[in-house]
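Model it.
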Amino acid sequence: MLRRVCACVAALIVFLPVVSAVVTIRPISNIYLPYNYNGDQGLFGIDVAAVEQTGYDTNNKIAYSAGDSYIHITDWSDVTTPTILDRIAVQTTCNDIETCGDYVAFVLQGTQSTDNGTLHIYPLYDKAHGNWTQLHEISLGSKPDMLHFSHDCRTIVVANEGEADQNADMTEFINREGSISIVRLSADGSTFSSSLLNFTQFNDRADEYVARGVRYPYRGELDGANDTFAQNIEPEYITYNYDDTKAFVALQENNAIAVVDLVADEIEDIYPLGEKNWIDFDLDASDKDDAIIFRRNNISSFYQPDGIKYFEVEGVGYIITANEGDNFEYTLGTEEWTEEQRGNDFKADDFADTFDDGLIAKLDDNNILGRLHFSTVDGLDSSGKIEKLYFFGARGFSIFRASNMTLVYDSGDEVENMIAKFYPDVFNTNTKPDDPATETPADLFDKRSDNLGPECESVEIGELGGRRIFFVGVDRTAAILIYSLESGEVIPTFESVYRAGGRDDTFQNLLDNRNLGDLDPEDLKFIPASESVTGVAMLMVTSTVSGTISLYEVYDDSSTMSTTEPPMMTTGNGIILTSSKVLYFLSIIFGFLIFQW
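Modeled.
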């Protein structure tokens, strides 16, 4: 009988996922932003570019949110009921918006995506009079993707992606160089200076950088042009060191980070991020197996981060990266060029003689590697045969030493395993339905396993109770992962995972009922307790596909366990209990079973 009791308890422990972590988030409120208006009536939709990024003024509790058609200004002074104060129409796509001190700045693309963009600088919104008047409009490079203020709010660095595209007539392929703009404001903000840095200085050393691992995939295949190394460089995300002497700029498709010297105003160097081998990590690479099936294979991938953040531990600088992954894919008229190909589209003679025959057989199997997208330009020998297989994105997050971008930590397969454990019904799901009226998030289960998997896209850092907290936005599951660092440590510890919104109703019903959750959490903003309305640390999440801004309280169970009931997080199987609740519940069941025995 005692054996039966122990078996029952063991089964119960397996059934109830025990979370020893203590840092969680719990929802406070959210707001859905219109993508357009019919008179004063807001129009709402799914994946319609209502919002991309948000800047938050902690002093006045006002958020500024950028979308394709409008900048929305919202009031969060009552955190439970945010409201739209104003909207400003923009003529071209607004890719980023930020606040700093007395300023708000945003970037607009040109009329065509390959045209030069502009930086717009405003004072803070005058809530009392409804006034918002532009201070400066400054020319930038092609397709500005992100801006970042220095700590003193006097310097703004802009990453101009320079993404290639065909012209409006579809007769010419235009591949502008990626660049970095540096704008400096005078003490009173009345004047500015601006400089533009490009990567042409690296063209003569392209072979050296390619050999080191910086990717240079497109060479002009569509129109026969000799596209340079600098034309392949695409700056996207920016972070600074603590004293604002260096900016680190993610070159996502290039699998590298550029370092900008902000004292000399020059690009110091480009550092490749290397590769990740999956022979010892679980990977679900198929959208056709109708299940979560992890396998291990001797294949590699590129990190290719989207969001990055700088931090220091005992005076040493590090960069945490959200390794979403991405690839180049271009069109000119009816011609298409892409650097990726499914495993089952490779032929036997595409591979070098030394390539593993067993791996080739797995590429022919759609349940194993046949559906995964691999690079056609990397891992080739001198004759153009494939020696090594690479796919895109590292399906997690990493920490690199800022001085030379050596890898210090990688999450391995933990992100996919955590999603599989806690939210299996939306594992590697697609947040962008083809038919919102009929499809549910759960219907699209596993649909992105053959692409970039979970797609870790955004990252934020905060401080809570003397610990450093990492927040990682997971695009396809629409979840937030939370990790912590103890003082002096560089290796993070998993705390919890949270996903808002319904999963078994149609996307349209979820939108109508304002229960979409955070579909594609593109931007995360940590609000420390000292700057929060309620005196409790908050996390503001801006999500592009749902068109939402959500506000969460960041809750540390360890500091309140004795006086406050810890929060619960819903999962695909019900409730994840915090450790104190699980142990309490198990003690009751165990006592009951012992009594029966």
